[in-house]
Amino acid sequence: MTNGKKILGEERRNLLIDWLQTSDKPLTGNELAKRTNVSRQVIVQDISILKAKKHPILATAQGYMYVKTERPAKASRIIACCHTPAETKEELFLLVDHGVTVRQVMVEHALYGELSASLMVSSRQDVEQFCAHLQSTKAALLSELTNGVHLHEIEAQTEEQLDSAIAALDRRGFILND
Ligand SMILES: [Zn+2]
């Protein structure tokens, strides 16, 4: 498609917007770098430039997503959780198995106040990808900054789905109770 030729600045960024807007799944920095014959670092810079121009691009563990126009209001909630790093997969599985999308993780940080990251995890496959990515990058979970305490923004089609997901987490001892 690109004949191994480097695609330059503005043209490359226009392509990125186009691909992200039309893709039905997140695209990774590596994938975008391969398509444009530049390094992943250049893609990271491009995405920053596009975000500064107010393009609604979200960096998630699965890759970059172009946030399409707001979807119809769904049920959403913030929950306070606590678990060990090893229990991360189990927690996320419990949530997605109830039809819940985990939008964000947030923690309290001594220097930066609230830190948040987009997860956008909504299937077991997303969870597997997130956990594989976590392992391969040896990155630390945000919750490791706070001994496992973190918040999640979760959403689902119905309040009932959220209720039963939270009940399942609670039974497993993952919900922070006073
Ligand atoms: Zn969690």
From TrEMBL:
Residue ranges annotated for the 3H domain, each copy included: 79-174
Residues in Helix-turn-helix type domain copies: 12-64
InterPro entries reported for this sequence: 3H_dom_sf, 3H_domain, HTH_11, NadR, WH-like_DNA-bd_sf, WH_DNA-bd_sf
Native source organism of the sequence: Halalkalibacter oceani
Any one Gene Ontology molecular-function term assigned to this protein's record: metal ion binding
Pfam families registered for this protein in UniProt: 3H, HTH_11
Protein name in UniProt: Transcription repressor NadR
Binding site for Ni(2+): 83, 91, 150, 152
Keywords from the named record: Metal-binding, Nickel
